[in-house]
Amino acid sequence: MSFTPIVDEQGFAAFPAPAKLNLFLHIVGRRQDGYHLLESVFQLIDAHDTIWLRLRHDGQIVHHNPLPGVPAELDLTVRAARLLQPKESDWGVDIRVDKRLPMGGGVGGGSSDAATVLLALNQLWQLDYSRADLMTLGLRLGADVPFFIFGQNAFVEGIGEIMTAIATPHRHYVLLHPQVHVSTPEIFKDPLLTRNSPSIKVGDLEEAVTRNDLQACAVRKYPEIAEQLALLKPFGDARMTGSGSCVFVEMPSQAAANAVLCGLLESISGLVVSTLDRHPLYEYAK
Ligand SMILES: C[C@](O)(CO)[C@H](O)COP(=O)(O)OP(=O)(O)OC[C@H]1O[C@@H](n2ccc(N)nc2=O)[C@H](O)[C@@H]1O
Ligand SMILES: Nc1ncnc2c1ncn2[C@@H]1O[C@H](COP(=O)(O)OP(=O)(O)OP(=O)(O)O)[C@@H](O)[C@H]1O
Known about the structure:
Layout: E1 13-30, E2 36-56, E3 61-63, H1 76-84, E4 92-98, H2 109-124, H3 131-139, H4 145-150, E5 154-157, E6 162-165, E7 172-176, H5 184-189, H6 215-221, H7 223-232, E8 239-240, E9 247-251, H8 254-263, E10 270-274
Parallel strand pairs: 3-4
Antiparallel strand pairs: 1-2, 2-4, 2-5, 5-6, 7-9, 7-10, 8-9
Helix pairs in contact: 1-2, 6-7
The structure holds 4-diphosphocytidyl-2-C-methyl-D-erythritol (CDM) and adenosine-5'-triphosphate (ATP).
Domain GHMP kinase N-terminal: 76-152
Domain GHMP kinase C-terminal: 204-262
Protein name: 4-diphosphocytidyl-2-C-methyl-D-erythritol kinase
């Protein structure tokens, strides 16, 4: 069934932008242009930003609450709207973002915000772009945008653009956010990064031994990540998502995850998350 947004008293409609976890991330090679060939399972989770949109009919795209340190014109929500806006069109939009997802946390917040704007405006502006069209547009904004438009949990290959939908079990995680901003290019450039993990076929995922190949480099540069991984280690196979900084561990139930989170130090920033089967706006593209 298609998602129906709540509308506030000012006429803004609310659209969720969910986060992702990289359940593992292997680097299996490097292209001539320096980009890395990766293999990863991308898992949608129920932590999300909320993007509030209100239609305008004067062609303007207005961001009402820019993020600290991100000028409105550089915000991925505004860039996504500009990319989609037809030339010479009267369609415009007011944008407000309730930011909950940690920025630079490896949970894909900025990419998901952009994907939600593309999916929602495709409907509100009655553009009728196909999912494939929106994924191609989205790639211009960031490597993870096509995944959120794809809208299903996926085995991802190539430099991040080849996706195969996979069924993943319903799971619960404790997710911690070490308060450091990891530079993605810096981690990929690290001479100590291993780039020769053996390639996995999608059919072999269940038996595969997996890890995040970016984790060793991130931990060397940011001891805070190692400290928070150590906090989760007693509960299972704790690992980092994306290029960090967030770390997570699977728990047998939501109650068990809540108990672990409550038992951690007060100064730790974290949350309990559960998996999603599909992006809430999946039906907004065909
Ligand atoms: C590693 C992941 O977090 C997995 O979800 C993402 O693919 C990274 O996505 P992102 O933060 O949106 O990063 P992008 O802005 O696309 O890429 C940042 C930089 O990371 C490096 N990069 C990224 C993706 C890739 N397959 N190989 C790379 O070498 C490149 O130096 C690139 O300039
Ligand atoms: N709407 C937005 N939300 C978050 N970040 C944004 C947004 N627009 C632009 N940015 C910029 O993008 C940078 C990366 O943000 P993001 O939260 O997507 O990182 P991430 O979770 O590490 O992503 P990934 O998992 O793709 O590596 C931010 O530091 C910020 O400068």
